[in-house]
Amino acid sequence: MIESVWYWFKSNRLHLIFWTIYIMYEAGLTGIFAGRFGKAENYIVHYALNISLFYFHYWMMKKFASKHLYLLFFLLLILLEIAIYIPFLATLNHLFTDYNQSSIRTFFGINHKFIASATYRSIFFIIVSTGYWFLRQYLNERKKAEEIEQDRLQQIVKKETAEKNLLLAQNAHLRAQVNPHFLFNVLTFIHRRIRKSDKIAGEVVISLTSLMRYAIETSQNTEMVLLSEEISQVYDLVNILRVLKGDEFNIEIKVDHNISEIKLIPLLLLTVTENMYKHGDLSDVNNCGVLTIYQSNNTLTIESKNLICEKKKSLTLKTGLKNLRERIRDFYGTRAEIESLEHEGMFHLTISIPVRKSKA
């Protein structure tokens, strides 16, 4: 309760300060010129009514401003407010003050002098309220204009940034046309030289060439790839790691049938497989890592499970899964889910994405 009252005072402090200053100024000035001050209840009744009229008129102007009947509405509203204000003021005076008391000739002290005074007083506060409404309208319109201008400037900055990034991407693409081509030629040459003398090394070179070509080509404006292509590259990566690690690398891949035509963002499976190798323990042949890919209704699910490596293999930033989460969020939004947990020495990762099949 106290917090609510404090919040109200804080939100309306400017209004409270304004009315306090106004009442002290007007009441003080009137009392000095008249040579005497009225009773407290007189001030309370009159200012409570006048301030209420101020906010009521502002509220009516704000409520019906969208009707575009400013002049007609304004005149009718003023007449209605004056018609209500006069008898209301007379009643409050009769009940709570010693002004305008009833007499034989008047009802609640209402006469020509009282009507003229009340009309002047009500019109004064109506004019002030109208000015306040126009001021608020002006400030709101200026704020909207500033927001529009700010949005326009932000759009200009975004456009210039996008154009700059496009230019950088185009330059990078031109450089990439040379470097990968040279690299693949070298790898092909190495494969030709060693395939007869060392068959295993030749297969590693072929897998590495395929893997690197896929990674580079899919990074050039490729939005989605076939699941079959991604799985093929996972097998290339697994073949390389099995040659390099031997018995220390044990992983099983389970893939549902008839899902090869599904499309997904590139390098998703490769990132998951690489994460299992970098941060997991795949040395136990009886408790190998498992990568499972299956479809349920309109959802493709990718699950990985592996032992948690107790020893720190090498210095790493561990940004693979973080970047993958961001890529999935940016592309699929809330339609996709990625969950990970550690349980009884095992690391579990589950990715669920909506199915997209390739067009025939």
From TrEMBL:
One of its GO terms (molecular function) is protein histidine kinase activity. Residues 170-247 form the Signal transduction histidine kinase internal region domain. Keywords: Kinase, Membrane, Transferase, Transmembrane, Transmembrane helix. Pfam families: His_kinase. It is an enzyme of class 2 (transferase). Its EC number is 2.7.13.3. The chain crosses the membrane at residues 16-37, 43-60, 69-90, 114-135. The keyword Transmembrane helix applies. This is Sensor histidine kinase.
